[in-house]
């Protein structure tokens, strides 16, 4: 299986995991000039931008280490584009990372906080 197919499979697992927790999936693979949001979901009244990382193993710090400060900035700019494009109303926003590993799913709520100037 190629990396794109593995990523798509991981995103599907992540979406099912979040739905089982009672979340609503609003969007998958939203693209904007700065990048792409894997999943946009609602956790209650909170809008959550979920970066999904799928890995065959957790060496080198695991998938969470792949969400670098530069990636965080691109995600925040893309999230701002999403909010503007969709005229979203919510009580708050948050950025989570969901790691899909062979041994299971690791969910990191509030994985990072973008700079105030980004959003």
How do you describe this structure in short?
The chain is built from two helices and five strands. The protein is α+β, with helices and mostly antiparallel strands and 119 residues long.
Main-sheet strand order equals: 1-2-3-4-5
Q: What's the helix-strand series? A: HEEEHEE
Number of strands: 5
The average pLDDT value, as a whole number, equals: 89
The Rg value, from CA coordinates, equals 14 Å
**Sheet having the most strands:** 5 strands, mixed
The count of domains is 1
Give the terminus-to-terminus CA distance. 37 Å
CATH topology: Trna Endonuclease, Chain: A, domain 1
Indicate the overall shape. Answer: globular
Quote the beta fraction.
Answer: 35-45%
Helical residues, percent: 25-40%
What is the name of the CATH architecture? 3-Layer(aba) Sandwich
Overall structural class, as computed from helix and strand content, comes to alpha+beta
CATH class, named Alpha Beta
Instruction: Give the uncertain stretches in residue-range form.
Output: none
Q: What's the total helix number? A: 2
Could you give the topology of this structure?
Elements: H1 3-20, E1 24-32, E2 35-43, E3 46-54, H2 69-86, E4 92-101, E5 104-108
Parallel strand pairs: 3-4
Antiparallel strand pairs: 1-2, 2-3, 4-5
Folded structure, characterized:
A hairpin with a 2-residue loop joins strand 1 and strand 2. This protein is globular. It starts with a helix and ends in an 11-residue tail after the last strand. The chain is an alpha+beta fold and about 120 residues long. Strands 1-2-3-4-5 form a five-stranded mixed sheet, sandwiched between helices. The chain has two helices and five strands; from the N terminus they run H-E-E-E-H-E-E. The chain has a single domain (about 5-110), classed as Trna Endonuclease, Chain: A, domain 1 (3-Layer(aba) Sandwich), CATH 3.40.1350. The longest helix has 18 residues, at about 5-20. The model has no long low-confidence stretch (mean pLDDT about 90). About 30% of the residues lie in helices and about 35% in strands. It has helices at about 5-20, 70-85, and strands spanning about 25-30, 35-45, 45-55, 90-100, 105-110.
């Amino acid at each position: 299986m190629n990396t794109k197919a593995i990523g798509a499979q991981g995103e599907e697992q992540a979406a099912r995991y979040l739905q089982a927790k009672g979340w609503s999936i609003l969007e998958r693979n939203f693209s904007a000039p700065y990048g792409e949001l894997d999943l946009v979901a609602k956790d209650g009244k909170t809008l959550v931008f979920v970066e999904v990382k799928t890995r065959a193993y957790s060496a080198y710090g695991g998938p969470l280490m792949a969400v670098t400060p530069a990636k965080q900035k691109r995600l925040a700019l893309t999230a701002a584009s999403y909010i503007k494009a969709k005229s979203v109303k919510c009580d708050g926003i948050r950025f989570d990372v969901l790691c899909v590993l062979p041994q299971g799913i690791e969910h990191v709520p509030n994985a990072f906080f973008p700079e105030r100037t980004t959003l």
